[in-house]
Amino acid sequence: MGKLGKKARKFAKKNLQSVLRQRRKNKAFLSKKKSYSRNDGDDVEDQPGNTVELCSGRNDNDEDIVNASLDAVFRKDDTDVFGDISDSDGYLSEDSSCPKNEGSAMEDFLEEDGGEGELSLQNKEIRKELAIQKKKLELLQKKDPDFSKFLQSYKDTENSRGDVNKFSDEDESENENDVAEGHSKFLTSAEIYSWCQMVKEQNSNPALTCLLNAYRAACHYGAESSGHRIQNREAFCSIVVFVLSEVDNVFRSQLQLSAKSCKKETLNELKNSAKWKKLKPLVKSYLRSTLFLLNQVADSDILVFALSRLKASLMFFTFFPTLLHRLIKITVSLWATGGDVLSAASFLIVRDVAAIFSDYLETCLAKTFVAYMDHCRASESGTMRNTQFFSDSIVELCSLDVPKSSFKVQASISQLSKIVQSGMQTKKKEALKKICSWEFVNCIDLWVKFVTANLQEFDLQALLFRTIQLVNGVACIFTGPRYLPLRIKCIQWLNNLSTSSGIFVPVASYVLDVLEYKTVKDRNSEVSLGLSNTLKLPKSFVKSQAFQEECLLFVIEQLCVHFAQWSYHISFPELATIPLIRLRKFHDNTSNEGHRRLVKRFIDQVEHNVDFVQKRRDEVAFSPNDHQSVEQFLLLEKSGKDAPFTQFYRSTMEKAALRASCKKDKISMLKQKALKLEQDQLTGGLANERLSSDSANKVVDDGTSSLRRKQKRAVDSGTSSLRRKQKRARQV
């Protein structure tokens, strides 16, 4: 028998049963060997078979770090503990003494509706199915005595548990599901007006119950078939407006609570009172209906009004934890997706919930951070309108309890640092792309704001140094000219951290490296681009003259910020030595006169301040080791802020702000011109079509008119020649 071919040998090596059997044995042996070495603590380097596995494990770990979501730390707390709870809470039982206006309008409505609703038919079908299942259970009990014993023991255990349940506030159906099935109520404007007057003047509980049932029907209007029908739009508006405006005050007056009474002692006393037990179903119905309304309405004005009234009733959510979770979920969603006013109103509720209910701070923080990251992830540019507001809101939430929030912030910064470390080591495209993204940049910006806002009042030194290391790592990875916007952000973060902490952070080297960019100058390319709206510049902008000017202005501005912080420090002459050397070198090498003037003026200002500090330093008698005297050096001059360099810094920042606003207006004008040009092109195409058709018609008209003229000339010439011939014939 000859040898097998190459393909046959390859197939046999992979698929023969003996080969597979031997492979399973080797796999079991290797797994035992790994577990033995792990338990006995053998050296990994002595096992050559494990080196490849460890390397692949490290690569997998790096991929997991890069692919992990930046909000994974907070998603652990962003879980719906109570799950999806049905919004159908039923109606309250109404008192027969409540006035009702039943007349022809009700009868006509019932006749048009067919007398029987869809809900009652569904209930009848459900009852039939339940009756069949009950009969089957009874037959099974008769046949199997063990099964009947099991049911009896189950009933005994259920009864022994009592009526107390963890989610008892969701199971209070004793007073909520007593609406007669198959009977729909028709709510007229007169009836609603009478209820409102009784609630206002007489503080009537039966009228309040009827009004809350009507409010529930209004909030669920269009979402489900209910037993209450509203006459017209005016009746609908009067129900919603009155309940949202007055019911909270009615509850407080009956419970004898002031508008600011939100202490734990007051709430504990209220929980055990008879008045609260009587009003609890009414309060719950009001809160649940309002939350359902927030999910159904799209008008921002109605949403803001409903949120403002819910904010006044926030203390009542203490007794309904499931409703409180639902409130947080809804308000965070409105905060992330609504307009300016709606987002602000939603955040006020989230902040008050986190402040009043301290146990829910982590839930509020987790949901807001996840929504913020989703927003940053969905956006492709830095021109997000609400990004600044979102980050400030999260910083305000974290500042409510800094020690508790700092643990989550530290975990998030550790995750960002691992991604940066993986990018520096592997240089993989996925890691670098993730670091140079708005999601990553906005996350760093958020934690920089948190550290700078709370560094003076709390001990956040560990977070400060880890954040500085993180920003330094990002700045070291992206050094090319196309990443100038990202480098600007890193330098601004470092300057902010240094200013808030009073710790020296060396940023001059990062700033002066921008002067070393070697780019090809293309004077014909005119590109206008906002550096704050992008993280990576296009190649066309790097080759433009505007890029050279932006680099120089950036260097002057950021060095001004850095030097202004330390302009009165005793070591300022040493701080400015190397930057002055590099600036003089740039001044000597550049050929642009405008650039030379800018650099020369800045050098003169820095040298003047160096001479000023050096002169005052020569007059003192303390040593550099006397830290107290060093801190008090030029303290009076610093408080006065009349030094020449301070004035130069102010003027430079004012010019930078003015230039940024002008550039923003210019970019908006260019966008408007581009839109107008597109519209003109569209309209121009239609106009050209009309013009071409008009010109074609004109050509046809011109051709026919010229043909008619030729025909007329031919006829005239023929008749004139004929007349001349006749005249000659007569003469002859």
TrEMBL record:
InterPro entries the record matches: Noc2
Sequence segments annotated as region (Disordered): 25-60, 85-105, 160-181, 688-732
Protein's cellular compartments: Nucleus
GO terms under cellular component: Noc1p-Noc2p complex; Noc2p-Noc3p complex; nucleolus; nucleoplasm
Presence of the UniProt keyword Lipid biosynthesis in the record: no
Basic residues compositional bias, start-end: 25-36, 722-732
Keywords: Nucleus
Main localization of the protein described in the UniProt heading: nucleus
Top-level division of the source organism's lineage: Eukaryota
GO BP field: ribosomal large subunit biogenesis
Compositional bias (Acidic residues): 169-179
UniProt family annotation: Belongs to the NOC2 family.
Protein name (record): OLC1v1026026C4
